[in-house]
Specification:
Layout (H helix, E strand, L loop, with lengths): L2 E5 L4 H13 L2 E5 L13 E9 L2 E2 L1 H9 L10 E8 L5 H14 L10 E4 L13 H13 L1
Parallel strand pairs: 1-2, 1-3, 3-5, 5-6
Antiparallel strand pairs: 3-4
Helix pairs in contact: 1-4
The chain binds flavin mononucleotide.
Flavin mononucleotide binds next to helix 1, strand 3 and strand 5.
């Protein structure tokens, strides 16, 4: 079972959790903003990882999805979403739905069981996250995929 995480960028809360998962599980970690070509058909499981910014995933992920050639991903490949966020309203669901729709346009089904954890920022909000428990939860989710 070959697994891949495509993270929006190489720093921040989301990348911190992705690094933890990649160092504890047999999974490759790539950064959407840095990698031009990812051989998607060679993976059985692909996890797309991003923070939520005003209801959307990071622009690097949006660009990366745009760059995928339609119908090149094997229909048996399972694609999942991992989000970090402050916990604002339903912004996670809005971001998930946009990614689902964009991927659908590329002939890819985004699985419904996405995972999210808090990611602090702006000096005051949820600054203790992601913590070790968050990392372990995401690891255990990724391990089951
Ligand atoms: C400009 C900006 C917009 C944000 N918008 C949202 C939002 O709509 N909903 C939410 O819950 N969190 C929001 N957040 C919080 C981020 O999703 C959270 O801090 C996340 O962990 C950032 O991921 P990163 O460190 O990998 O970039 C926002 C943060 C920033 C800086």
């Amino acid at each position: 079972m070959k697994k891949l995480i495509v993270c929006a960028k190489e720093s921040g809360n989301t990348h911190k959790v992705c690094r933890y998962v990649a160092s504890n599980l047999d999974v490759e970690l790539k950064v959407a903003g840095k990698t031009t070509m990812i051989d998607l058909p060679s993976y059985d499981v692909i996890i797309v990882a991003s923070g939520v910014y005003l209801n959307r995933v990071h622009k690097n992920i949006l660009r990366w999805i745009n760059s995928i050639e339609k119908d090149t991903v094997n229909p048996d490949t399972k694609v999942y979403l991992f989000l970090t966020w402050f916990g604002r309203g339903e912004s996670d669901e809005v971001a998930f739905n946009e990614v689902k729709q964009l991927l659908r346009g590329k002939g890819i089904t985004l699985e419904d069981n996405y995972i999210k954890c808090f990611g602090g920022g702006m000096g005051v909000i949820k600054t203790s996250h992601p913590d070790e428990e968050d990392c372990k939860n995401v690891l255990s989710w990724a391990n089951e995929l």
